[in-house]
Each structure stands twice: as structure tokens, then as C-alpha cells.
Amino acid sequence: MKALFNKLFGRMIKTKGSLCGHETALRGTVEVFGKTLTLKNQDPPQHCLQCLADMSIRCAWCREPILVGDPITLYTPRPTYEIPDHAVYYSDNPVQLVGCLRWDCADSGASRAGFWLPSETEAGVAVVQRVLSPLEQCMMGGGTVIVNDASNVAEAVNNTTAFIKEYNEKMEIVWRKRAEELVDSMLPGE
Ligand SMILES: [Zn+2]
Ligand SMILES: [Zn+2]
């Protein structure tokens, strides 16, 4: 019966997040810092859509939202940078702040240092899932990008929201290309 409903109504059935315990649709709209967004949940869900939305943070640099599933950077600010109150610290020494990977914010897609992901064990908590950046992968692999780690995380991310899945697939190609170019430009010429 449930399967039939799912077919007819596109998986809008309410169920409970296993971690947060709130009722949730598998797909729905939420407000994130004043913007209305459509989110697709994991099935079975670990968190309700509202709890997922509430895990959003703002970029330490451009102040735009970072949602669960988003790729992130971990830059260290210059000593003169006035760190905003909303900034999320990844480490204190050296200071590394969680930033977004928007074109006008990150140095390049090759700076992707991880993802902002919901905790697997704790309700209402999101954490930095560190992965090797495409640049780090390139440098280790002598110009060849090994994406195993990144794509595993992308799998987990894909379960969280559909639009982030599409975004990541598109961006992964761009990042890899950009990372290869960067490493090429860093290697001594023939
Ligand atoms: Zn919840
Ligand atoms: Zn930003």
C-alpha cells in the first residue's frame, strides 16, 4: 500500500526522522535564511526537513547560506580579517573557517576540502566531513585525480537533496579540470 502511495504522490508520505523523531515528508519546502528551498530527504529519513534546514550555516566569507550536503572550503583568515560572529570554526590552531564554494567566494573549485553533512548519530547536528580536495588529490597522484573519497561522500550527499546531487555532479567535472590545470601550472615545464 505504501509503495502505491509513493508511486501516486511522489513519496510525500510523512514518516519520522530516526534521529530527531519529528514527522517529515520525504520532499518539501523549507525556509533557509529567508529563502524558500525544496529539499529531498533520505529514505528512510534520519532528520526531518526542518531539522535539516536548521543545520544550515553561513559562509565565513560571503555570508551566503551553506546547506547540508554543500561542498565547503577551510581557508585560514589573514590576521586582519574580522571574523563574523556567525562563522563556523573547523579548527582553532591554525584558525580554519567553514566557507562556501561559490565561484566568487572560493579561490577555485580545487579548494573543496569537504562537505557540510548531517551527523549520522546526533539529531540537529551537522559537521564537516573532510575529504581530500581535488588539488590535494592531484598533487598526490601526480596530476591524476583519484575521486574515491569524494565520490563516496557525494553518495551520502546525493541522498540528502536532489538539487545538490545535480550540482555536485556538474561541479565535480569542473573541479577536476580546474585542479588538473592548477597542478599542471605548478609542475616544472618540460
Ligand atoms: Zn526534526
Ligand atoms: Zn562564501
- What strand order characterises the main sheet? 8-9-7-10-11
Bound molecules: zinc ion
Q: What coarse outline follows from CA principal-axis ratios?
A: globular
Uncertain residue segments? 142-164
Task: Report how far the terminal alpha carbons are from each other.
Answer: 66 Å
**DSSP E strands, number:** 11
Return the structural class. alpha+beta
Domain module tally: 1
Major sheet description: 5 strands, antiparallel
Tell me the strand percentage band: 15-25%
The helical percent reads 25-40%
Number of helices: 5
Mean pLDDT equals 75
Radius of gyration: 18 Å
Brief descriptors of the model:
190 residues; alpha+beta; binds zinc ion; two-stranded antiparallel sheet; five-stranded antiparallel β-sheet; globular
What does this structure look like?
By secondary structure, the chain is an alpha+beta fold. It has one domain. 31% of the residues lie in helices and 24% in strands. It has 5 helices and 11 strands, in the order αββββαβββββββααα. A hairpin with a 7-residue loop joins β10 and β11. The protein is globular, with a radius of gyration of 18 Å. About 12% of the residues have low confidence. Bound molecules: zinc ion (2 copies).
